[in-house]
Amino acid sequence: MRDKDEFYDVLAEISGRPFDRYQKIAGDFDFSRYVLKINEVQPAVDADPTLLVLRAPQSVAGFPPHLFSTPIRRTALEDVLTRQMGVAIDARAGSRRLSVARPSPQILPRTSMVVTEEFVEARVYVSLPSRDGRVDGELATRIFFEELPQVATAALVYAYLDPRLLDRAVSVMEDADFVRQRLAEKRLVAFVADGAILPRNGQTGAPLPGAVPFESPAELRVDFALPSGRTVYGMGVPAGVTAIIGGAKQGKSTLLSAIREGVYNHAPGDGRELVVTLPDTVQVDAEPGRSVQRVDISGFYSELPGGVDTAAFDTPCACVATSQAAGVIEALEAGAGALLFDEDTSAPSLFGADAALQQLAGHSSVALRPLASQLRPLWQQRQISSVVATATCSQYLAQADTVILLEDFRPRHATAAARELIAPPPAAAGAPLVPRDRSVIAATLDPSRGRDDHAIRTRNHLIEFGRDLIDLAALPQLVDPAQVETIGLILYYAKLRYMEEGTTLSSVLDFIDRDLGMEGLECLSRELRGDLARPRRFEVAAALNRLRSLRVRSV
Fold first, then answer.
1. Rounded to whole angstroms, what are the CA distances from 206 to 164, 200, 249, 271, 275?
2. For residues 536 and 480, what is the distance between their CA atoms, to the nearest angstrom?
3. How far apart are CA 144 and CA 268, in angstroms?
4. Which of 161, 187, 263 has its CA nearest to residue 478?
5. Could you tell me whether strands 313-315 and 275-277 are parallel, antiparallel, or unpaired per DSSP bridges?
6. Which region, left, alpha or beta, applies to residue 271 given φ > 0 means left and ψ of -120 to 50 means alpha?
7. Residue 231, strand partner residues
8. What is the DSSP secondary structure assignment for residue 467, as one 8-state letter?
9. Please, are residues 411 and 404 in contact by the beta-carbon 8 Å criterion?
């Protein structure tokens, strides 16, 4: 292994020469406190940045083993170190050429930081500097010999970090995971801690200053004795059917949004650290214009105009209602155990049809069995819970086991009052919401473009998958652009490994979950990556279902 003096000499040698001479810095170099690993160097000025791997042995890093002794603790430590690396880069890297993953408020397994018993490894990107298309040796020397060592020391050496910051990050993560593991035994879908700050700043996503702290109604208050030693109190959202009601701007969607994002743990300071939801909870919104492949929506539609087969519904451009109907069935196919619906983002006709208007329209109307009549059977027959936020549809009061009324962001238990106003309806007839197994025709999952056998790129919520474009903007539980990047790789990985004839989509998702759980995100790419974050199986399935070239078979 070469040392940092040799690295310095290489930079001096290539300074002022054509940009491609940067290839000479590839290799491993000992910088005393850490080893700098450069596997591949960007070939041109406008190419993707170069990945730098900074590996500090634990003899130097010195992190106490208790901070990463379990997978939960390790994920929390890697998350807080990634955030600290970003802070250090902002403070010390004046060239603005160093970058690291910038996590959302949610804590996700990532490839930006790796902590083991032997070492701590950060994966940082650098845009190698140039001047008139040639190596800028002076600036490169400053980056590698001034900025990078300062950043590494500030974020990778325990002695230079605030131990209270690290302990709190690990404790918050462990407490939230403890609550999540116990929701089912308490027959809860979610828990919202007293004192949580739910409203968000629309620009930054940070807690909204001056927001009303959450306080549970007495009838729904539950408590958890946490691993950190304290007891937390808050509102338990019961299993079954829950309706969140209230007027405009009273906090219905804010509460539902917090429950939706509670499938992830949150970083300290977010305000929602102990808003915790079952991990298999999926919000389904309407998404007009999306493609649908052979999805059984007969539980919603007994017939459609033109004799369309609702048991194997197929369209390149779904309407607002059929898109949401298909989304419900696809979520169930992927294994959802609880569903969330917001009236504001739902198809009006599917969300709750007006009984009088339906009767007046008679047989001239589409034979639709609305969502409002489906949730009670879904719970009774399949034990799948649902939470619905509504301001106008009283049908959900009749269906609900629990009614929560929001007034000025303050929740009130209103189940008894709702029962006095509206009686439960008779059992509805119709096909149950049970998805039919489907298998993917692997040849239709084609990521190639020209000579490239896997041209996969992402920007914002879009995945360029070969010649296809997958739009994931309508998936509210996709919370980080790095998840989008990872989904593109997962689709290619699944095609290569698991999409054999007759393998169901749900089985493919099981295999992917198993591999990611055992091998981590590293299994998805032959190259080291520092920009990946793990998505849930539900968003992976949603991406696959939105691939317009996709073709499936019913199994």
1. 22, 6, 19, 8, 15
2. 12
3. 32
4. 263
5. unpaired
6. left
7. 225
8. T
9. yes
Judge whether 157 and 33 are in contact, CB under 8 Å.
yes
Residue type for position 441: I
Tokens of residue 136, six digits: 């800028």
State how far the Cα of 458 lies from the Cα of 484, in Å rounded to an integer. Answer: 7
| Dist. CA 449–CA 136, nearest whole Å | 34
- Which amino acid does the sequence have at 178? F
Evaluate if pTM is beyond 0.85: yes
The helix (H) or strand (E) run that includes residue 405 is strand 402-407
For the record, the structure tokens of 68 come out as: 């990463």
> How far apart (Å, rounded) are the C-alpha atoms in residues 281 and 447?
30
Q: How far is CA 127 from the centre of its chain?
A: 28
Kindly list the averaged pLDDT for each block of 10 residues, start to end, along the chain of length 555: 94 96 96 96 95 97 97 97 97 94 95 97 97 96 97 95 97 98 97 97 87 96 97 98 92 96 97 98 97 95 88 95 97 98 95 60 62 91 95 89 95 92 64 86 89 86 94 96 96 92 93 96 93 98 96 89
CB atoms < 10 A from the CB of 423, how many? Answer: 9
Structure tokens at 17: 């020469």
Task: Give the length of the chain.
Answer: 555
